[in-house]
Amino acid sequence: MNYIILDLEWNQGSGTGAGTTVKELPFEVIDIGAIKLDQNRYIISEFNQLVKPSVYTRMHYMTGRIIHLQMRDLMKGNPFLQVMTQFLEWCGDDYIFCTWGSTDLVELQRNMRYYFMSALSSGPLPYLDVQKLFSIAYEDRKSRRSLESAIDFLRLPKDIPFHRAFSDAYYTAKILSVLPEGVLGNHSYDFFTLPAKREEEIHVRFENYHKYISAEFSNRQAAISDREVMSTRCYLCAEKRNLKRKIKWFSNNGKHFLCVSYCPVHGFMKSKLRLKKSENGGVFVVKTSKMIEEKNFLEIREKKEKKAEALSMTENDVLLNKSSMENNHK
């Protein structure tokens, strides 16, 4: 299997007149750069092409400042369909995409859809987010460095300028090539295409947690009413037993939900549920489950109690205000 390290640059509308943003294509790809590594993570091929724009024919001032390109440069490029067809042929058959961050594959597929091309996969697409892998290997798994900062951290040579698609793909490839082998199993998923039905939903176990990606629901209520979405099975038990919840599902913001269950064999398990909007206007769910220590359980319980206390105080304030208004009216 080869690694395709991909980076994109894109232009956008200015919001007015001829630069009005097109809803179906908020960002138009103008530069595609990629490096192909073999299974041993050695460079074996390169791809570098400008894309001639057809939607946004004025360069957004911020885009031009960052990538140091003018519209006259882009007009020398080839149309997106031609470039993308050549790119996919260059990728070959057996590969995994690798990017710095999580946005490139989404925007690439939005551009593909705009030109009536098929999506890159029939469901959630596994890929390597090298920015995340860097954090897993060298930091706290949560922080996200800039590409240049990561190059500096690893003391890798900076021999070409940053902020062009090919150069950023090149630097991302340099980082990937030196990452410890053990972190490469921590792949991410691009959600542009969701599972079409229950049988195609994603259940994947990583080194220290489990991830579930649902099919699309019509709305938020349908998602949080679904038994599979709200289930809390122990991912370490062979029979995947549904666990008793020590802390029932609760939310601080209406988008992220937490609960803690208890497995008599493996202990406390924290589940985090995130509601996300799909490309089709619906809702899907990403749920992660992880075994935790008792001290973590106690911290989450305290967080829920504080949330309940704050909610109760808010409700009391509403009642007091209502009573005051009624008395003043009298």
TL;DR?
With 330 residues, the protein is of the alpha+beta class. It is built from ten helices and twelve strands.
The Cα radius of gyration reads: 24 Å
Number of helices: 10
Mean pLDDT: 90
- Give helix and strand order, one letter per element, not per position: EEEHHHEHEHHHEEEHHEEEEH
CATH topology of the largest domain: Nucleotidyltransferase, domain 5
DSSP summary, beta strand count: 12
Q: Which superfamily, in CATH terms, is the homologous superfamily of the largest domain?
A: Ribonuclease H-like superfamily/Ribonuclease H
Assign the CATH class of the largest domain.
Answer: Alpha Beta
Oligomer: single chain
Largest sheet: 6 strands, mixed
Distance between the termini: 78 Å
| β-strand amount | 25-35%
Q: In CATH terms, what is the architecture of the largest domain?
A: 2-Layer Sandwich
Q: Would you tell me the structural class of the helices and strands?
A: alpha+beta
Task: Indicate the low-confidence ranges by residue numbers.
Answer: 315-320, 322-330
Shape: globular
Task: Estimate percent helicity.
Answer: 25-40%
Q: Helices, strands, pairings?
A:
Elements: E1 2-12, E2 27-37, E3 43-50, H1 61-67, H2 71-74, H3 80-91, E4 95-99, H4 104-114, E5 125-129, H5 130-138, H6 147-154, H7 165-178, E6 188-190, E7 202-205, E8 210-213, H8 220-224, H9 227-230, E9 244-251, E10 256-263, E11 267-277, E12 283-292, H10 294-329
Helix pairs in contact: 6-7
